[in-house]
Amino acid sequence: MISFGVAPAFIMYFWKLNELGRFGWLLCLIYVSCVALRLARFNVNSNQEPSWRDNFFEGVPSPAGGILVLTPLIVSVTSFDYITLNYDIIVPASFIVISLLLISKFPSYSFKKIIVQRKATIFLLFGIVLFLGLLLIYPFNVIAISSIIYLLMLPISFFHFQKLKKQNLDKDLVEDDDDLEDVL
Residues with Cβ < 8 Å from 177, sequence gap 6 or more? Predict the structure, then answer.
């Protein structure tokens, strides 16, 4: 709660939201409340039986929400000189959108049960080492790009969830039809 809720909210408040006065405090309070609700929902849902839905979170997880809230600050300190953003509008808007994503039922990838084929493990390890190396050399740029990639993956995870939901719903209907007896 402190790491992913209160700390990012305070950092963003002292960076930009303090210019909004009490409305800035309200945005921070709303975000922190949504993080608390998100963590409570995660704790309640963590003891359910395994299913295909385990590959998805219900809403954006709070660590991702903390990084997403800090993304405008991170972008402002990167070397993306060709990007000029109006942070007075982007920061409050991102607080509202991310707060809603935290408490929504929007499916997002959890990456908990990824199955990597044996042939692809060397490429995965190389990718992880490359990512960590770039993170050491260009920390703010890598975090900013990773946040943007994560945001772009949200619609993909939504459509993938809908596809899997339809497939599993069709399987359940076929299994239910098999259980019916022939009366004639």
Answer: none
